[in-house]
Amino acid sequence: MANTDNPHGFRPVTCIGGMTGVMPTWQAKLKSNNVVAYGDALYATVGYAVNSVTGDKAVLGVCAEAGLITSSATNPDFLFYPAHDGIVFSGQTSGAMTQAKIWTLVDIEGTAGGGTDKATRPISDQEVNEDATTNKNVYLVGLKQGGNTSLGTWTDVMFIWAKTKFQARGAMVLSTQYIGY
After folding, report:
1. Are 38 and 63 contacting, i.e. CB atoms less than 8 angstroms apart?
2. pTM summary value
């Protein structure tokens, strides 16, 4: 059966390592002159969360608030799902997904802040860009159970974030010496 085009941003679906219950949410302040919608990927800058379409930065998390959050000078607080290694997210692909793309690093794309029809559909229009590998934001780990699960265009996939604000691996220097004894 053919999949339908229904971009909905990113959502947590399960956890690695045995965690059960409600997905964790954290609170952030939205930077001035930004709009975020449920499912938008978030980045951090000078202590504030911002939305972004390009994935050239480490992800902070995904907006967990229903509807649109708009900031002017007030910098409202809102909840987000942190982009921890142990949380598996889902998203729709923007193009044709194949089995060979599972277990690969790919990009994200799409309109943050509710997209073009935000008045009637205030959720993210961001998607997994299954055929782009410039920024390598997400690591595809499989197809989501239920929904658009046929391989092909607009497939719902599961992934973990490959570049997050919670990973110090890029800047970390590992010592080869033993301490003590």
Report:
1. yes
2. 0.83
